[in-house]
């Protein structure tokens, strides 16, 4: 019974509208504006007035909370539009009296996050267009080309291959029952969407063990975690609190487990290198650079260097994958056209040639 209730809640959660957080770019824009204004003679409330002029409606609530005596962190939390990382960095900024630095670091953090996200989108834009082109080509062949060719075979005694009969049968059926076929297709897509959502709930791409996708997701996760550690530690937050914050906001179960294990190991008194080695990450450079950072007191620089390395690695992998995808998709288009030529057009040409002889 409990299992059935749990499944029902999972099913309902798919359709439940989620609280919309600010995008990376919106958070970058917000904190960048605050960091620039914070360096001037304007106080915080006046700074928010300037941002309000750019149609940032949620800022009204922040301004009212601060005017009512609440801290900047409390005001941000009440909007429910920011991450735990933002709250932690702003809290440290308030405690140290350096909110301008906190805003600047958050602006840099979200700027890089937004740039990385855009790189991924741009890299897969052309392959996405090719996939749509393949789908459009198949639709054209099925609903227009094959029916027009089929009329040429009517009344003839041409012996057609079995595959040709199947193609024409599918085309005739889907053309005649176009509405029903469309509804069936949409229903199947919807069912697959539901099953995938139920199956992958609370999982990230690196948890689903798809070779290429998981590899990309792992590179992104390493870059994201290291960059977040850099932001938090450079803001004055200790390693345990930084790890705790990451555990709260990371969605991937596998990364959560590793972070929990790392947290426990450091709390027991182990060095950062020992704690990382216990995770069996198979990422020697992480252990190497953080060991140097811990021993020389340059942890911030080591974290930034590592995050830069993994962001570059992610960009390189995306570039390689798209270079492989493009010719592969063009090949699929060529194979589709060739398949139609062999099993639809060639029998017709052969029949005409035979009749001439």
TrEMBL record:
Domain (Type II secretion system protein GspF) ranges: 30-139, 231-347
Main localisation: membrane
Entry keyword set: Cell membrane, Membrane, Transmembrane, Transmembrane helix
Bilayer topology: Multi-pass membrane protein
TM region(s), chain numbering: 124-143, 177-196, 328-349
Subcellular location: Cell membrane
GO cellular component, one term: plasma membrane
Membrane as UniProt keyword: yes
Signal peptide boundaries: none
Pfam families: T2SSF
Superkingdom, taxonomy of origin: Bacteria
InterPro entries named in the record: GspF/PilC, T2SS_GspF_dom, T2SS_GspF_sf
Family statement: Belongs to the GSP F family.
Protein name: Type II secretion system F family protein
